[in-house]
Task: inverse folding
């Protein structure tokens, strides 16, 4: 009897924690489904989330019940980006922009395709010789419902994807995308968030980074510029293309530093056309590349005060909110 009683107690000790854990999971699921509030941003505002994904780039834009994701960072076993998006109740990504095919910018892209509904995918006219790139192309080909657009002169990337090139950076009207709800009764209403694609502008570059997409995001009067990892050649090519309107075209309130603050990017030729109030640098803490480089930070300090330079390695996630007139910034740390 004592032996049976001992066995029964042992079973109870094992089973009870399991039952408790299951009940906790069920309760959490019920709470999330019925009670947890949706993530909301202030009415009439847009949010720019510069997400701390370590040594990489990932930016989430939320506006008018629409979402834009620019880059993903490295493939992350801890699902940093995916968990961040789910915490914001993201189910659909309306525009998924990959600036270029380096792993620290698109490493999590295939997982994003699996976890979220993607409506539009925008990529540069670039190919990479890597298993990650090939796997990503295969994943896209299995999702014909995604509308794929390529920034470049060709209608596909290496013939690997069947795409529709709807973004013509030679034409001012065709290089702009208006994101958000539109008022069908107002023919002039094109939505509130504007994405303007300005590069890359050449068919080929020596450096892989120079294939990076240039995109200016505008909400109201506020403009935020993203240049991926573009280096001097890529930056100067874009400046040369738009030199007659560069001062107006590249004027921005926030500049997301090229190539994580490397001294090969954010060159003086580009900065001469910018008058940002803030700089954002995405990089990993104590990264092996030494990003951001001191020379680049000094160039930024010649334009803004040091407390207007934000870094994900030091401040974690950086959330910028704009009502179209004023900008406020909150950091995780």
Result:
């Amino acid at each position: 009897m004592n032996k049976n009683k001992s066995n029964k107690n042992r079973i109870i000790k094992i089973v009870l924690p399991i039952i408790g854990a299951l009940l906790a999971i069920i309760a959490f699921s019920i709470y999330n489904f019925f009670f947890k509030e949706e993530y909301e941003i202030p009415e009439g505002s847009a949010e720019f989330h510069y997400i701390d994904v370590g040594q990489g780039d990932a930016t989430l834009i939320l506006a008018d019940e629409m979402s834009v994701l620019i880059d993903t960072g490295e493939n992350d076993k801890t699902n940093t980006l995916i968990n961040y998006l789910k915490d914001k109740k993201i189910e659909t990504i309306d525009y998924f922009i990959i600036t270029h095919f380096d792993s620290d910018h698109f490493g999590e892209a295939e997982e994003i395709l699996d976890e979220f509904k993607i409506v539009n995918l925008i990529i540069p006219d670039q190919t990479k010789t890597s298993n990650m790139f090939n796997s990503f192309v295969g994943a896209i080909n299995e999702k014909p419902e995604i509308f794929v657009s390529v920034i470049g002169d060709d209608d596909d990337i290496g013939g690997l994807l069947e795409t529709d090139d709807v973004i013509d950076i030679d034409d001012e009207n065709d290089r702009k995308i208006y994101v958000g709800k539109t008022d069908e009764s107002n023919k002039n209403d094109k939505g509130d968030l504007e994405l303007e694609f300005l590069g890359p502008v050449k068919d080929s570059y020596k450096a892989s980074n120079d294939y990076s997409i240039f995109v200016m995001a505008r909400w109201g009067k506020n403009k935020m510029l993203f240049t991926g990892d573009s280096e001097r050649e890529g930056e100067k090519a874009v400046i040369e293309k738009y030199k007659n309107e560069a001062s107006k075209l590249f004027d921005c309130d926030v500049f997301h530093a090229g190539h994580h603050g490397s001294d090969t990017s954010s060159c003086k030729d580009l900065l001469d056309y910018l008058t940002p109030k803030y700089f954002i640098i995405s990089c990993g803490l104590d990264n092996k590349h030494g990003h951001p480089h001191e020379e680049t930070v000094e160039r930024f300090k010649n334009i803004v005060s040091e407390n207007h330079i934000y870094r994900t390695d030091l401040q974690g996630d950086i959330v910028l909110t704009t009502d179209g007139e004023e900008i406020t910034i909150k950091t995780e740390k």
